[in-house]
Design goal:
Order of helices and strands of chain B: HHHH
Number of helices of chain B: 4
Radius of gyration of chain A: 32 Å
Helix content of chain A: 55-70%
Oligomer: heterodimer
Order of helices and strands of chain A: HHHHHHHHHHHHHH
Shape of chain A: extended
Structural class of chain A: mainly alpha
Largest interface: A-B, 22 and 19 residues
Number of domains of chain B: 1
Distance between the termini of chain B: 65 Å
Chain lengths: ~325, ~100
């Protein structure tokens, strides 16, 4: 049973002093330990300051004057010659080292070991993906791809932190953002965008959905969709894109895509590690609904990449959604 | 290696050298875009269309657009007037008055 102490009693305990210290209140420190910081830095006269700046400028000029600084003259003369020579020597060294590499396609290359043999022989059978590259990326090495998607997400968050405007100074925001100039209503750009944007986005969706059948996949398709969105934004301005893409959209799409990816892969890893049957049908090779989880993972990666590309551009343009 | 690949590789070299020689930042980005485009065609000839799609979308598309926006933000290009606003950056090189007499 706890008993509440009176205020006077409580003020003598260590806990009281600790929380005082944590809050940074002055009572904790005795007066003798405090220092008056203003006395340590004497105030400077304006004339002193100008004098000092002049001295600095003089010293700088003298240091960079070629007539008095012989070393600098020597350096300036040699700089270009040495730089070109250095580049040529470095290039020659690199090209020379390439000649030691094993020939492309030779049977005794160190890359021709059991790993690619397994991928080529059993890839279609085990992953169900006709495009063996996607089978490798999203099935055998899906964990790496998950890390890559997370790296992209973290990069966008960092850009968001760096480029985001402070909400307090609205005036500064209005001036520095390009929104006041929008939309420019360029006829050529708008007409071209009207025809191209649907084609680009449909092509991006095609690349994502056929990632396991034809070249491409989540990353390339997402980048194509992102580029299409950027073109649309440039042609029609922020007013139109904000109807379907705001900060909330970005947050939820990224969150759901990454979580779905994580859950799907966690399930298959759990099943694989415990030698359980995952009950995910591989389907017939070549059909669009085949190869198990790869289609879902491709869609997740594509969504994250498309959002990331678009968000990068928006953050660069106006520092806010 | 067929003729097309040799021509593309020569273009690639020309782009790589000229991007370091050019002094205009806008031109440098345009050359970089063409470098990416040639590179994506080379990927196709090397039978890796996955990389070609990604290179065309990211290298020639999104990255260059981000470069353009950055140039506009630091006022290295001014599209409205068509002139460069580099005069603002010359403040630091101004001399302090009366230095010449003392030197």
């Amino acid at each position: 049973m706890s008993r509440r102490k009176s205020d006077e009693e409580y003020s003598k305990t260590k806990a009281y002093r600790f929380f005082k210290w944590l809050k940074g209140e002055d009572e904790y420190y005795p007066d003798e330990t405090k220092m008056d910081m203003s006395l340590l830095i004497p105030m400077e006269d304006e004339s002193d300051l100008i004098e000092r700046m002049k001295d600095k400028q003089l010293a700088k000029e003298k240091a960079y004057d070629e007539s008095s600084n012989k070393l600098l003259r020597f350096f300036n003369r040699c700089y270009r010659v040495v730089a070109v020579l250095f580049c040529i020597i470095l290039g020659a060294l690199l090209i020379y080292s390439v000649s030691f590499l094993p020939k492309v396609g030779a049977a005794d290359r160190p890359t021709n070991n059991e790993v690619p043999a397994r991928y080529i022989e059993k890839g279609l059978e085990e992953t169900g993906a006709v495009n063996i590259v996607t089978g490798m990326i999203l099935d055998y090495r899906a964990f790496d791809t998950f890390g890559e998607s997370n790296v992209l997400f973290v990069a966008t968050i960092t850009v968001l932190i760096l480029l985001r405007h402070n909400k307090k100074d609205e005036k500064d925001k209005e001036e520095s953002s390009d929104r006041i100039y929008e939309p420019k209503n360029d006829v050529i750009l708008q007409t071209v965008a009207k025809f191209l944007v649907p084609i680009i986005i449909v092509f991006g969706i095609y690349v994502i959905l056929n990632g396991h059948l034809s070249p491409g996949g989540g990353f390339s398709g997402g980048a194509i969709i992102g580029a299409g969105l950027i073109l649309y934004l440039n042609a029609f301005g922020f007013m139109k894109t904000e109807r379907f893409f705001t900060e909330k959209t970005y947050k939820w799409i990224s969150f759901f895509a990454l979580t779905t990816y994580c859950l799907c892969k966690a399930y298959s890893f759990y099943c694989g590690a415990n030698h359980l049957d995952s009950h995910i049908p591989l389907g017939t090779a070549g059909a669009i609904l085949s190869s198990g989880l790869i289609l879902i993972l491709n869609i997740c990666v594509g969504l994250v990449v498309a959002c990331t590309m678009y968000t990068f551009y928006v953050m660069f343009r106006k520092g806010d959604f | 290696m067929n003729t097309l690949q040799i021509i593309l590789l020569v273009f690639l070299l020309v782009c790589a050298v000229s991007v370091s020689v050019t002094k205009d930042l806008l031109n440098a980005i345009l050359i970089y875009m063409s470098f990416s485009l040639i590179m994506s065609i080379i990927w196709v000839t090397l039978e890796s269309p996955d990389l070609a799609i990604t290179e065309a979308a990211v290298g020639a598309g999104v990255t260059s657009v981000l470069f353009f926006v950055t140039l506009k933000k630091i006022h290295a290009i001014n599209i409205e007037e068509g002139t460069k606003e580099l005069s603002d950056m010359d403040i630091n090189t101004e001399k302090v008055d009366g230095l010449d007499e003392q030197a």
